[in-house]
Structure formats: structure tokens, C-alpha cells
Amino acid sequence: MSNLVKNPKVPTETLWRTEGPSGLPVTLAQAKEHLNLSPTDTTHDSKLTDMLAAATVRVEHDTERCLLLQTFEKRRFAFPDGQQPVTIDRKPLSSVTKIEYLDTDSVTQTLPETEYDVDEAQRAIFTVGGATWPGTNQSNRAVVVTFVAGYGTASNVPSELKSAILLQLDWRFYGEDVVEQYENLIKPYKRTSYP
């Protein structure tokens, strides 16, 4: 059991993105084709690139998903009690890079990979062999889980999510009402239940 003093006004965990995606899941050329703009017309390139970035952020926010690979740190005040899993807040979980923690003597330790199991589908990290999580010193960074989330490359991003990005361009560029179409595209990817 952790010695964490819980204060309902202070979050017990935070999420920090430490490395963003290396690009966008929809290219400028794809955006121009979708909007029926000439591929050689560069008049709107800067504006379209900004719109693509904003549309991508919107889709990621609305679906709680990372489209391209991104690295995060989940910082916790302590490990969960007993054998409760550490949950990951971004989908799809690609990998867990490392788990570091401040032990009870305030020394940073790295938890060996042999002491935990990552379930990518459940976005959860479990202890192995019935073990409990190590004790930690109370700190806002007592436990730091570094992980990578995202579909990988643009070719792996589901076509519905790419289409949702392109639909937003219709709204942003031409002012068309696309809300219902957009919602229908992302619906299968949105959260359907709450813990």
C-alpha cells in the first residue's frame, strides 16, 4: 500500500509529451487533391499546412488517440496499490520504453523489464508473478513511465481518421458544414465506456 496522502485538488498523475510526431498523417498533396486545388498552386500551402496540423490535433483530441508515433512520460506520485495495473492514457500503445521510480531512500531506480508485463490492447502495465509494485518516496515524479503511442507511419493510420482530417479542411477552407459526417467517421474510435 502506498503512503500517498491524497488531496482531491491535486492530480496524482500527469502526462507529458516529450517527443511529438515527425510529420502529419495527411500530406499537403492529399489535402490539395481533396479540396480540388491544383498541385502546382502554392498560394495556400502555408495556410493548408496549418489547417492540416489543427485538424490532426482535433482528431487526436476527439478520439484520445495518437495518429503518428509520439513519446510520453506518465508521471505518478506512487505506483498503484498492490497488483493494480498502471494504465496508459493514450492509444494505441506501441511500447513502454522504461519505468523509473524514486525508491524509499529517494534513489532513482529503473524497474527491470522482467518485473512487469505490458498489455498493449488494454493499455496497461501489470506486475508479474503475483508481485506488488516497489515502494516509493512521495514525489510528483515518484514513478515515471516512458512510453510510445501511435499507429506508426501515416500508411498505418486508419483511413476513417485520415478522412476526418480531410473533412475538417472542407469546413476550415470552404466553410462547409461537415459536423455530422465528421462525427460518423470518428465514432468507432471514440471512448465508449468510462472506468
Describe the structure.
By secondary structure, the protein is of the alpha+beta class. It folds into 2 domains: 14-67 and 153-189, no CATH class; 72-146, no CATH class. 26% of the residues lie in helices and 23% in strands. It contains 4 helices and 8 strands. The protein has helices at residues 28-34, 45-63, 159-174, 179-186; strands spanning 13-19, 70-76, 86-87, 93-102, 108-110, 116-119, 124-127, 143-149. The strands form 2 sheets. A 5-stranded antiparallel beta sheet has the order 1-2-8-4-5, with no helix packed on it. Strand 4 (93-102) and strand 5 form a beta hairpin. Helix 3 (159-174) runs antiparallel to helix 4. The radius of gyration is 20 Å and the shape is elongated. The chain starts with 12 loop residues before the first strand and ends in a 9-residue tail after the last helix. 24% of the residues are buried.
